TrEMBL record, chain B:
The lineage of its organism: Bacteria, Pseudomonadati, Pseudomonadota, Gammaproteobacteria, Chromatiales. PANTHER family: ACETOLACTATE SYNTHASE SMALL SUBUNIT, ACETOLACTATE SYNTHASE SMALL SUBUNIT 1, CHLOROPLASTIC. GO terms for cellular component: cytosol. This is Acetolactate synthase small subunit. Dimer of large and small chains.
Length: 579, 163
C-alpha cells in the first residue's frame, strides 16, 4: 500500500479546477473573467501549466475552443463567468453541439445559497444549455470537482462527441477551504457505454451488398473526420473503386484532388455528386446523417438505392432516411473490419458494371464541372478561393464564416487532408470564422491559417482583432466583400423578385484602416490583377495578421443549388439553366 | 399507436428535466408520465405513455437512450404487460344520486374513500380504458374533480427491467 502512504494533496475547489485541467493535458483555456469565477482566475494566475487566452467576447472563446477541437480531435476548454458571461457563450455551445464537437465549458454560478433568488448575475445555465449540449452538470461539493471534470472530458470526447457544460457555484471554489485532490485515471458510467465495434453480421452483409452493387457511391461526413478514419475510408474507396462524395462537414476526409472524388453533395453540391447519388443503387453512408441540406425532398431521395449506414449514434440511423443495413459503431474499427473482410473475400467487384458507372459519372462531370465566368471584369469569389488554394498549396487550415463565401470556399479550395476545413455546418453561425482561425493558429503556429469571411460575418466578432494582437495570431483574413449579405440576397433574387429586404450592408467600415487601428496590416483589393501580389505579400508576412479586403462581384450566386422540394439531382446550374 | 415506455433513470437532479425537455424539444407527445424513486435509492423509475408511428417511437427510444442519465429502458408494448392507473373522483352525491354512484363504484370495483353530506370521493384502480369507462358511466352525476396518477406499467412473467 505504498501509494496510499503518499500524502494526499489538499487543494481548494478553484485550484482543483485548474489542476484537473492540467492533469487532463489541457494547454489553453479560452475565457473571460467575472465575479463568479474570480477564485478560479486567481488559481489560474498562480500556476503556469494551463495558459489562459483572454478574448474580447465570450462567444469567441467558445469558437476558439471548438476550432481547436475540430483541428486536433481533442476537447477545447472554455471558462466564463455566470449570467452574461454564460449567455454570451450559448451560441458557441450550440454551434459545437450541432456539429458534434467535443468541448468542456466551465461556467461560473452565484453562491449555492443564492441560486433561485434572482441574485446578481444569476442565470439558470443548466436550463439554458440543456437542449444544446451533450450533457451538463453542476458542482455540489468541492471535493467532487476532479471527478466531474474527468467525467466531462470522457463524455465530451467519447461516442458521438459534443460539448459538456459544468456549472460551478462560487462557494465551491473558496480559496481557504481545501480538500484532498485526486484526479481519476478513468471513469465508468453504468448509464453511458457508447458502442465501439460494429455488429460483425451487419458488416458482412454490407460487404456482400457492396460487391454486388452496379452503381455504388460512398457518402462520407464529419463523423469520419472526428472519428480519425480518413485513411481507412480512403483505402476502402480505392479498393472498391467507389466514387466518393463528402458532406460540408466531411470535406478533406477523402483527398479532393483524387480522381475518385466527385465533390461535395447536397444543396450546393456538385452536379456530378448529386446526380451520382440520385442514380446510385447502393449508398455507403459513413459518419454522415442524411441532413435536410443533403437530401432535399426525402420523399424523392435516391429511389433505387440500398442504404448502408455506419454511424456511432443509433439515433442518426433511419432518422430521416431508412437504412437497409445499419451499422452502429465507431467508423474506424468498422472500416478496418470491412477492409479485413475484403482481403479474405475471393469474390471481386463487378468490373464491367463499375466501368459503365464511371463512364456515366464522367459524362456528368463534363456537363458541369464547377464552372464560373472567369473572363468577367469583376473579381469572382471562386477565383479568389482558387488562388488562395494555390498560394497555400491546398494545405492551409481554412476557417470559414457563413454565407456565399463559405460555399465558395467549400467548393473551390480542394481539401486533401482531414481537419483542415473548419466551418459551422449545422448551426451556420456567422461570426464563427475569425475566432475559429484564432483557435487554430494559436495551436498550430507554423501552419497557414486562413479565415474566409464576408463583410457581414466578420463584423459579428470583429472585436477579436484585438485578441489577435495580444497573442500575435498571424491569421490571414480573406474578406470576400460583396457589400451584401450575399446568401440572403441570393434567396431574395431567386424567391422574392430581388426585393433586398435588409440584405444590403450600408455604411461599411474601411476595413483596411480598421485592421490598422488594431495594429495589423490591411490590404484592399479591387482589381483582379491586384489579387496575386496582395496574397503573396500577405502570406510572406508570416507572423502578422493581414486583413485582405477583397471587393468581389456583388451579383455572383452560388451554384449548383438544389431546387426546393425536388429530388437530389434537381438543381439550378446558373442564373439561366436548370436540370 | 399508444406505447408505454419504462425507464430507469439515475436519481440525480436535472435528469427528469432533461428527459421531459427532450420531448418538448423534439415535438414528441407525452400522454402521461409517472416517476418515483425505486427500492434502489440511486434510481428512479419512470413510466411514460406516448403515441406515434413506428418511426417516431423508434426515435423516442433511441433519443432517450442517448441521455446520459438513462440507465435502461424498455417499450412495454414489445411483450405482454400490465398497466395500472389510479384515479380519485369527487362527485356530487345527494338524494337518489348517492345510491347510483355507489352502485357504479361497486361495479367498477372502486372504493368510496371520503364522504360528506353532498359528495363522495371514489378511488379506482385499473387500466386507463377502465378509468375512462367509469367516468362515462357516471354520466348524469355532476363530477366536481378528477385526479389521475398516470400509468404505471410492468412486464408480465419473468421479464424485468432492472439492473
Ligand atoms: C448569426 C447569424 N445570423 C443570421 C444568419 C443568416 N445568414 C446566413 S448567410 C447570411 C449572410 C452573410 O453575409 P456575409 O457574411 O457578407 O457573406 P456573403 O453571403 O455575402 O458571402 C445571413 C445573414 C446566420 N447564418 N447567422
Ligand atoms: Mg457579403
Amino acid at each position: 500500500m505504498t501509494s496510499q502512504t503518499k500524502q494526499t494533496e489538499m487543494l481548494s475547489g478553484a485550484a482543483m479546477v485548474i489542476r484537473a485541467l492540467a492533469d487532463e493535458g489541457v494547454e489553453y483555456l479560452y475565457g473571460y473573467p467575472g465575479g463568479a469565477v474570480l477564485h478560479i482566475y486567481d488559481a489560474l494566475f498562480q500556476q503556469s501549466k494551463v495558459k489562459h487566452v483572454l478574448v474580447r467576447h465570450e462567444q469567441a472563446a467558445t469558437h476558439m475552443a471548438d476550432a481547436y477541437a475540430r483541428a486536433s480531435g481533442k476537447a477545447g476548454v472554455v471558462l466564463v463567468t455566470s449570467g452574461p458571461g454564460a449567455t454570451n457563450a450559448v451560441t458557441g455551445i450550440a454551434t459545437a453541439y450541432m456539429d458534434s464537437i467535443p468541448m468542456v465549458v466551465l461556467t461560473g454560478q452565484v453562491m449555492s445559497h443564492l441560486i433561485g433568488d434572482d441574485a446578481f448575475q444569476e442565470t439558470d445555465m443548466l436550463g439554458i444549455s440543456r437542449p444544446i449540449c451533450k450533457h451538463n452538470m453542476s458542482v455540489r461539493r468541492p471535493e467532487d470537482i476532479p471527478a466531474i471534470i474527468k467525467k466531462a472530458f470522457y463524455i465530451a470526447q467519447s461516442g458521438r462527441p459534443g460539448p459538456v457544460v459544468i456549472d460551478i457555484p462560487k462557494d465551491m471554489t473558496i480559496p481557504s477551504q481545501t480538500f484532498p485532490y485526486h484526479y481519476p485515471s478513468e471513469v465508468k458510467l453504468r448509464s453511458y457505454q457508447p458502442k465501439l465495434k460494429g455488429h460483425s453480421g451487419q458488416i458482412k452483409k454490407a460487404i456482400s451488398a457492396l460487391l454486388t452493387a452496379k452503381k455504388p457511391i460512398l457518402y462520407a461526413g464529419g463523423g469520419v473526420i472526428m472519428g480519425g478514419a480518413s485513411d481507412e475510408l480512403t483505402e476502402l474507396a480505392q479498393v472498391l473503386n467507389l466514387p466518393v462524395t463528402n458532406t460540408l462537414m466531411g470535406l478533406g476526409c477523402y483527398p479532393a484532388s483524387d480522381k475518385q472524388f466527385i465533390g461535395m453533395l447536397g444543396m450546393h453540391g456538385s452536379y456530378e455528386a448529386n446526380q451520382t447519388m440520385h442514380h446510385a443503387d447502393l449508398i455507403l453512408a459513413v459518419g454522415a446523417r442524411f441532413d435536410d441540406r443533403v437530401t432535399n425532398n426525402t420523399k424523392k431521395f435516391c429511389p433505387d438505392a440500398t442504404i448502408i449506414h455506419i454511424d456511432i449514434d443509433p439515433a442518426s440511423i433511419s432518422k430521416t432516411i431508412n437504412a437497409h443495413i445499419p451499422i452502429v459503431g465507431l467508423v474506424k474499427p468498422v472500416l478496418i473490419e470491412m477492409l479485413e473482410l475484403l482481403q479474405q473475400k475471393k469474390k471481386k467487384l463487378d468490373s464491367a458494371a463499375m466501368k459503365k458507372w464511371w463512364q456515366q459519372i464522367d459524362e456528368w462531370r463534363a456537363v458541369h464541372g464547377g464552372r464560373y465566368d472567369s473572363e468577367a471584369p469583376l473579381l469572382k469569389p471562386q477565383y479568389v478561393i482558387e488562388q488562395v488554394s494555390k498560394i497555400t498549396k491546398g494545405n492551409a487550415f481554412v476557417c470559414s464564416d457563413v454565407g456565399q463565401h463559405q460555399m465558395f470556399a467549400a467548393q473551390y479550395y480542394g481539401f486533401n487532408k482531414p481537419n483542415r476545413w473548419i466551418n459551422s455546418g449545422g448551426l451556420g453561425t456567422m461570426g464563427f470564422g475569425l475566432p475559429a482561425a484564432m483557435g487554430v493558429k494559436l495551436n498550430y503556429p507554423d501552419a497557414d491559417v486562413v479565415c474566409v469571411t464576408g463583410e457581414g460575418s466578420i463584423q459579428m466578432n470583429i472585436q477579436e482583432l484585438s485578441t489577435c494582437k495580444q497573442y500575435g495570431l498571424g491569421v490571414k483574413i480573406i474578406n470576400l466583400n460583396n457589400g451584401y449579405l450575399g446568401m440572403v440576397k441570393q434567396w431574395q433574387d431567386m424567391n422574392y423578385e430581388s426585393r433586398y429586404a435588409s440584405s444590403y450592408m450600408d455604411s461599411l467600415p474601411d476595413f483596411v484602416k480598421l485592421a490598422e487601428a488594431y495594429g495589423h496590416v490591411g490590404i484592399r483589393v479591387t482589381e483582379p490583377e491586384q489579387l496575386m501580389p496582395a496574397l503573396e505579400r500577405a502570406f510572406a508576412l508570416k507572423d502578422q495578421l493581414v486583413f485582405l479586403d477583397i471587393h468581389i462581384d456583388p451579383k455572383e450566386h452560388v451554384y449548383p443549388m438544389q431546387i426546393p422540394g425536388g429530388a437530389m439531382n434537381e438543381m439550378f446550374l446558373s442564373k439561366t439553366e436548370r436540370t | 399507436m399508444r406505447h408505454i415506455i419504462s425507464v430507469l433513470l439515475e436519481n440525480e437532479s436535472g435528469a427528469l428535466a432533461r428527459l421531459v425537455g427532450l420531448f418538448a424539444q423534439r415535438g414528441y407527445n407525452i400522454d402521461s408520465l409517472t416517476v418515483a424513486p425505486t427500492e434502489d435509492a440511486t434510481l428512479s423509475r419512470l413510466t411514460l405513455v406516448t403515441h406515434g408511428n413506428d418511426q417516431v417511437i423508434e426515435q423516442i427510444t433511441k433519443q432517450l437512450h442517448k441521455l446520459i442519465e438513462v440507465v435502461k429502458l424498455t417499450d412495454l408494448n414489445d411483450a405482454p404487460h400490465l398497466e395500472r392507473e389510479l384515479m380519485l373522483v369527487k362527485v356530487k352525491a345527494s338524494g337518489a344520486q348517492r345510491d347510483e354512484v355507489k352502485r357504479c363504484a361497486d361495479i367498477f370495483r372502486g372504493q368510496i374513500i371520503d364522504v360528506t353530506a353532498s359528495t363522495y370521493t371514489v378511488q379506482l384502480v385499473g387500466t386507463s380504458d377502465k378509468l375512462d369507462a367509469f367516468i362515462q358511466a357516471l354520466a348524469g352525476t355532476p363530477i366536481l374533480e378528477v385526479v389521475r396518477s398516470g400509468v404505471s406499467g410492468i412486464a408480465r412473467g419473468e421479464k424485468t427491467l432492472a439492473l
